[in-house]
Write a structure and sequence with these properties.
Helix content is 52%, strand content 18%. It has 7 helices and 6 strands; from the N terminus they run βααβααααββαββ. The strands form 2 sheets. Strands 3-4-6-5 form a 4-stranded antiparallel β-sheet, covered by helices on one side. The protein has a two-stranded antiparallel sheet with strand order 1-2.
């Protein structure tokens, strides 16, 4: 079973509370799996490890309750997480670093956020970038969309304009990897 850092869970909770208020949070809690409610009742800190299923349940249930059930809200939550977690100490790196530099650093820090898989960053230095999620033990579309939202917002934090983002392959489609493609101006 894969694990995720508490920071990813905490940003989802903060997103729901900020966007839909305490009433929205209470509505969502009634839909969450019992195991997710159990995890949320405990102590969650940015650096603690929690079941990946909790993260997925939060994403999927939020998207189905407040979104369209198409994982687009998972992308919003990923972008929200980038804003919350990267606009602090890391802000200077985003102001000084290029998109390929920032994404290569994100790839090297993957294991700080997930205890499974790896993120491979590839750039042709001509305004295109791909991220591949490899060897993740429990791939899920909500995770791909979340990473896509986080990466897209991270690209924007460098000052680049994001013109396109898409999933070009996915293990849930029976591909070997989950691949996210980005284009900037």
């Amino acid at each position: 079973m894969a694990k995720v850092r508490g920071s990813a869970i905490l940003t989802r909770v903060a997103y729901v509370k900020e966007k839909f208020g305490e009433d929205g949070w209470k509505r969502l809690q009634t839909l969450l799996a019992p195991q997710t409610r159990h995890v949320l009742a405990g102590a969650i800190e940015n650096r603690t490890w929690h079941p990946f299923e909790t993260f997925i349940d939060l994403n999927v249930r939020t998207d189905s309750l407040f979104g369209r059930g198409d994982y687009r809200m998972c992308m919003e939550m990923g972008a929200y997480g980038a804003d919350k977690n990267l606009n602090t100490v890391y802000r200077i790196f985003f102001q000084l670093g290029s998109v390929p530099f920032i994404m290569s650093k994100a790839a090297s820090l993957w294991s700080e956020h997930y205890d499974s898989g790896k993120l491979i960053s590839k750039s042709d230095q001509r305004k295109s970038l791909t991220l591949q999620i490899e060897d993740f033990v429990s791939p899920h579309c909500a995770h791909c969309f979340s990473v896509m939202g986080w990466a897209g917002r991270s690209i924007e934090l460098t000052g680049a304009s994001l013109t396109e983002r898409q999933r070009t392959s996915c293990r849930n489609w029976r591909d070997a990897t989950c691949t996210l493609a980005f284009r900037t101006t």
